[in-house]
């Protein structure tokens, strides 16, 4: 059931947000008298009305190089972007709320708007946040001591630029939900789709001054979150406060236009690289400069998202001398937030730099990758920024992908196409996807947070297994895959395991679904809890079988087995019989053993997990129109032990499609005046099935040594690889006529324009 399918409780009010039509404007006055006079109108709440009911949100930790911001639930004095919510109208019906919203009179004083990093960084720039000294909210840099020497030794220095446009998440169901206040119990129930029910509840309780036991978060199915549905955003908080103030249930259905322009956006970054290289194409050192446009607020610590790009940029390559400078800027656009693979541009930047090196030196792009790639002998490897790889197979995925693509044959075909109406391009991109961020990562980034996940497994008297954890699925198939990990740890039949997630009261406190941590952190916790519970099941089984020890026993598929003469044989005892004894016949248990079968376990991954994949594609570009067609697409990945191969394939398809869609089409565009230009699917193009190829997938399956079940996360790498492979293929095609796109999206019109310019030069 999606949020909007939940029937309205009695006396439910409907909410509509009034949003700023201006990129930057002072709110001089809000007159709600006419709106409130309309039949059915119940209330119009503004920032001033809510300020004493919801505390401000501190947007960033106060660490070096980062300016913290305090964000009120609704603006008190000025709107900062087109779509900024400035008041919420509540009425008996949705139609009455819409009519009342039309009657609210707002007097605005339009202020100068900042619509680009160029504007934001100008010396006389207006300030997006008047409480800050500058529009640059974060500046972080890093350099290894030997970097200058690497550049001094270089035969060539190769520079490249990579720009990525603003995009947004596009969940199937926009943000929607229901807030119910029970005044008798002084209790709030939030029925909003969230990827992280417990952190969501902690934030709601803190912002409203409630204890966590006064708040239940019960997430419905959400049809996609992609990072947009982790923390409570301002509309969720307004609903919670309104329900409490008015003592009535309140519901909200976000429109697609609101979601596109005022949900959260992401990805707007420009990265420039300078590579110091030897004549044979080996990279001796690299620098990168990142300018990120975070819009009017950063809904996640700004240092985290932009810095991860810089931190993991070296990826699968061997160079050790490295430096970066990361600047995060505020502009008058929709706030930024986490979005599937917040570091999505990284692999294009790194592998696009490799292509630039190959072109500058007249070498083959695959050969330059081979010369720079980490080999099995290099692992374990610590990168210049301290990322520790203990299981990585980039050369294996590279060779698998180019082998399947038929790289050599495609290069030969490309050479023979000179007079053709189409250009052939071959794109390669090897990804190192950082995921399952550990507690140490959060500490080092200065972000309050933990990498652990908590799992609970109960076996009921009938043998039914109830597994739970703090993750919530937004489409990852947890009901299957996490039930499988619990069953594998415990030794139960998977059909006996039910996963219960999404409710903050019944699931154990966890960090939620984000950063591709579900399989490894959630799965690791469930697997570990299962293993511990199995030990108890076997101890009880040994007692029931009159054995002195459980050493020769195992539980598989819900059956207790015993090893006899090297063979596992059925004992006739089942998990259900053991469970019945544990619950209902405790006097048969070993002395001192607790009745029941319930295990709670927290699993905190030792370090960040790194997963590698290589994406390889061939594209054809029509010279006359700039139209692109993806001819072949191969992805070879290594996510360790695959819990469910079909789900891994589905996630790879989805992630890659998201990357390709972003690289080819999507653009949350703004005008020079800060006006939002993409408020519907007529303007915000996302890929459709006929824009995408059939994916050919290959797997390496090298188990992670740091996860109890050998699992590595995988669901963001496809987005990174899709962008890199597509953009590198387009540029490989364009290189034949001496041009290159240094910014996404690679739309036909941009490609056509580049071709025209190349012809004119
Ligand atoms: N899996 C597996 N074997 C592995 C690794 C993963 O079978 N070795 C399975 C997992 O059990 C899980 C799925 O693949 O069912 C994804 O696992 P993982 O890579 O750990 O990612 P998460 O579960 O943490 O999911 C979060 C990730 C992120 S960060 C976003 S954003 C995202 C995504 O996954 N949003 C999605 N995938 C999405 N898919 C859909 N349909 N909708 C979204 O909103």
Automatic annotation (TrEMBL):
SMART domains per UniProt: Ald_Xan_dh_C
Domain of life of the native organism: Bacteria
Keywords of this entry: Molybdenum, Oxidoreductase
Protein name (database record): Molybdopterin-dependent oxidoreductase
Residue span(s) of domain Aldehyde oxidase/xanthine dehydrogenase a/b hammerhead: 2-112
Keyword Oxidoreductase annotated: yes
Pfam annotation, one family: Ald_Xan_dh_C
